[in-house]
Design goal:
Layout: H1 2-19, H2 21-26, H3 28-33, H4 44-70
């Protein structure tokens, strides 16, 4: 569980920084304060991270299944 939470948090930070790098470097507090006014909604960073995490979990599960049938 701890490993998965660390993976989710790391993915969250990676996605936030990669999508909005200049905003995080120039004005991070203003960027966070503007979140409620986002056209995607207040919780879009969590939802997008959850979607990407789900895709990664699906690929990890598929990889484990392939390894199970191979060996």
């Amino acid at each position: 569980m701890k490993r998965e939470l660390l993976l989710f948090a790391g993915l969250f930070l990676f996605l936030a920084l990669s999508m909005h790098f200049s905003a995080w470097m120039d004005h991070p507090l203003a960027h966070i304060e503007a979140l409620p006014h986002s056209s995607l909604g207040v919780y879009h960073p969590l939802f997008l991270t959850l979607i990407v995490y789900g895709v990664i979990a699906l690929l990890r599960g598929l990889w484990a299944l392939i390894k199970k049938f191979r060996g």
